[in-house]
Amino acid sequence: MSSQDIPEENLPSAQDHAHGSVALADTDNPFADPGLPPHEHRVQDIDERAAKRSERTVALMFTLSMLGTIGFIVAYVAIPVDKSIFVWPIGHTNALNFTLGLTLGVSLFLIGAGAVHWARTLMSDVEVVDERHPIAATPEVKAKVMADFRLGAQESALGRRKLIRNTMFGALALFPLSGVVLLGGLGPAPGTKLRHTLWSKGKLLVNMNTNEPLRPEDVTVGSLTFVKPEGLEEHDHEFLTEIAKAAVMIIRLQPGDIKDKQELAWSHDGIVAYSKVCTHVGCPISLYEQQTHHALCPCHQSTFDLADGARVIFGPAGHALPQLRIGVNSEGYLEALSDFDEPVGPSFWERG
């Protein structure tokens, strides 16, 4: 059947086309818009006792969320970092990490579950059809949006159901405290630890390879040797922390090749000692060019002139390598005469 055979009143209008839907008057048309099914009321809509039960359930979830957050904070403070527990089927695991993850997950889950249960059982579930409209809203549409918002706020019963409102606000207000407490995981403030190392007056320079103290005659001209302070052993609990600051390289130059007066004064018979920690991002310097007296950091190619105060001659490093003042003790061993006079490693904002 062609469109000429359809009565004019049953033909789709231009307005129908504009709305993207065409519904013919023919009731036998299988493509006709069926419309919305009849609304089915929930038990909470017709039974206030059921609504009260849902309200108490939502409030319970929000309250348990608050308890979960409090449990997170208590666990963070009370459980030792190195404590281990057995959890089936995981096996042995860190008690602190497991408890923090469990309490934080439960707290966040209950906030979401409470909000979902609230929406499904107490907020309005009446289906509303709204026609498409231009992006630029008219004053009438804006007024309708505000009216719908006010209606939604009213139907949410946020003002009337104070138990839900107060417990929800409590859960949402308390939950961020978990993040605040986690800031403590960054560790204690460094204090003056960045400004001092294990080096001090009288500490012998110990060869990192042989673990023996060094004499001047053990260091040949042009050689590079890595040393550590006397008393620092690899099996020490704080070895990695301390060697990261106290690692030193010693190089023997001809005294006439040393350009910097302080470097010459702080050396012994051409033997100079500098921090091994690059002043860019803290990589260990390990490459030395004998002919030019240049030390190279392998990470980002910062280059230091060890014959001229270890100043930076290339690369992103921000300042020269700190020099360790050395001498020889009464037994003929190389020793430190003090700690570094400036912090080793990369710059930091409090550095003077």
Structure characterization notes:
Residues 245-335 form the Rieske domain. It is found in: Cell membrane. Keywords: 2Fe-2S, Cell membrane, Disulfide bond, Electron transport, Iron, Iron-sulfur, Membrane, Metal-binding, Oxidoreductase, Respiratory chain, Transmembrane, Transmembrane helix, Transport. This protein folds into three domains: 1-35, no CATH class; 43-185; 193-336, Rieske [2Fe-2S] iron-sulphur domain (Rieske Iron-sulfur Protein), CATH 2.102.10.10. The chain contains nine helices and 13 strands. The chain starts with 13 loop residues before the first helix and ends in a 16-residue tail after the last strand. Residues 1-7 and 9-25 have low confidence and may be disordered. With 352 residues, it is of the alpha+beta class. β12 (326-328) and β13 (334-336) form a beta hairpin. It has helices at 14-18, 43-46, 48-78, 95-121, 139-155, 162-174, 177-182, 239-246, 261-265, and strands at 84-87, 91-94, 205-207, 224-229, 248-252, 271-275, 287-289, 294-296, 303-305, 311-314, 323-324, 326-328, 334-336. The longest helix is centred in the N-terminal third of the chain and has 31 residues, at 48-78. The strands form four sheets. The protein has a five-stranded antiparallel sheet with strand order 3-4-5-6-11. The chain has a four-stranded antiparallel sheet with strand order 7-8-9-10, with no helix packed on it.
Number of domains: 3
**The CATH homologous superfamily of the largest domain:** Rieske [2Fe-2S] iron-sulphur domain
Instruction: Provide mean pLDDT, rounded.
Output: 86
**Which spans of ≥5 residues are poorly predicted at pLDDT below 50?**
1-7, 9-25
List the strand order in the largest sheet.
3-4-5-6-11
Q: What share of the residues does DSSP label as strand, in percent?
A: 5-15%
Instruction: For the record, give the distance between the C-alpha atoms at the N and C termini, rounded to a whole number.
Output: 92 Å
